[in-house]
Amino acid sequence: MLEASNLECVRGERRLFAGVGFRLEAGELLSLGGANGAGKTSLLRMICGLTPPATGEIRWRDQPTNQLGAEFRAELCYLGHHNAIKEELTPLENLLTTAHLAGESLAEETALDALATVGLAGREDLPCRYLSQGQKRRVALARLVHERRALWVLDEPYVALDVAAVAMVAGLIGAHLQRGGLAVLTTHQAVALTAGTVRELRLGH
Ligand SMILES: Nc1ncnc2c1ncn2[C@@H]1O[C@H](COP(=O)(O)OP(=O)(O)OP(=O)(O)O)[C@@H](O)[C@H]1O
């Protein structure tokens, strides 16, 4: 369903990787590893169509993603390394605003349920600047609770999370895979899922 072949990534003067390929089916997770600077975030950006590969091709449902454009983006959920939340807004306002900007309707009740699931019950109405780093990461991750797009691309989703929150996010990813979704993530730690198949790809040496 998601297939990459012979990908080459050049940033500035440097070639970060070449000859990278993988194939991912429904219910599978690709866990990207590698040293700092190996090109993991760059590869995620390539998958999302934000950075074109120097050579190679990425295909979604057997079609090149650069030809699919909006059709592909409609099936994609990208969660970047930065939380992309507004500090002056509350967790609830952040969720509602993000959904609104994406052209999606999100009921307040659904947003509150997502915040409770990620352990932020009681913090829904506090401006995000008063939250800890882990709590801010949880706000960003709350959108995964009700996310039903087929392909999740997650840049270091576990960063700043405590043990319980890592297990909670792994549970959300596992449920997504069980529904037939696909996921690609970068991480510096082992991924233990309750469901789905984990494939590993390590960039660099
Ligand atoms: N626009 C750019 N121009 C030049 N170099 C860049 C650009 N973007 C990224 N790089 C460089 O590419 C390399 C890989 O960056 P990338 O963020 O993909 O690595 P990473 O494997 O995700 O690292 P980390 O584990 O530290 O998050 C880094 O050395 C970075 O400085």
Automatic annotation (TrEMBL):
InterPro entries: AAA+_ATPase (IPR003593), ABC_transporter-like_ATP-bd (IPR003439), ABC_transporter-like_CS (IPR017871), ABC_transptr_haem_export_CcmA (IPR005895), P-loop_NTPase (IPR027417). GO terms for biological process: cytochrome complex assembly. SUPFAM superfamilies: P-loop containing nucleoside triphosphate hydrolases. SMART domains: AAA. Pfam families: ABC_tran. GO terms for molecular function: ATP binding; ATP hydrolysis activity; transmembrane transporter activity. This is Cytochrome c biogenesis heme-transporting ATPase CcmA. It comes from Rhodocyclus tenuis.
